[in-house]
Amino acid sequence: MTTQAQYAKALFDLVAQSPAQAAEHLKGLKASLERRGHQKLLPQIFKEFLALVERQERSLRYATVTKEAQRTRKLLELYRTLVATT
Q1: Region class of 2: left (phi > 0), else alpha (psi between -120 and 50), else beta
Q2: Dmax of the chain from CA atoms?
Q3: What is the distance between the alpha carbons of residues 71 and 49, in angstroms, rounded to a whole number?
Q4: Which of 36, 35, 33 is nearest to 44 (CA)?
Q5: CA–CA separation, 31 vs 45, rounded Å?
Q6: E strands of the chain, at which residues?
Q7: Which residues of 33-59 are buried (b: 16+ CB within 10 A; e: fewer)?
Q8: N or C: which end of the chain has fewer CB within 10 A?
Q9: Which of 44, 45, 66, 49 lies closest to 12, judged by CA?
Q10: What pLDDT sits at residue 80?
Q11: How far is 50 from 47, CA to CA, in rounded Å?
Q12: CA 11 – CA 49 distance, rounded (Å)
């Protein structure tokens, strides 16, 4: 795991635990990067953070089973059974 991915994961975990304090966490990250001389990593950290957020949103979207999706799945199973028997 790269340095920027580690920073992004840590920020993601902190924001997930306390979303109301996201601005404070971001300020703390910026201060930490300045202390360590890693300011140039901030754009990559932000990109990694957005990827983590998108991954979470996608997993929630696909984990949700709707009635239409369940109906489609059943119809596909019936169709496969019908095609396999002919």
Answers
A1: beta
A2: 70
A3: 35
A4: 33
A5: 14
A6: none
A7: beeeebeebbebbbebbeebeeeeeee
A8: C
A9: 49
A10: 93
A11: 5
A12: 8
When the pLDDT of each residue in the chain is averaged and rounded to a whole number, the result is 90
DSSP one-letter code for 66: P
Name residue 84's amino acid: A
Per-residue pLDDT averaged across 73-81, rounded?
92
Question: Which residue reads 């996608």 in tokens?
Answer: 58
Average pLDDT score over residue span 17-24: 92
The token duo for 68 is 């239409």
CA 64 to chain centre: 15
Which tokens go with 11? 């920020």
The token pair at 58 is: 């996608």
Q: What is the DSSP letter of 37?
A: T
Taking the alpha carbons at both ends of the chain, their separation in whole angstroms is: 51
Amino acid at 6: Q
Nearest-angstrom CA–CA distance, 38 and 52: 21
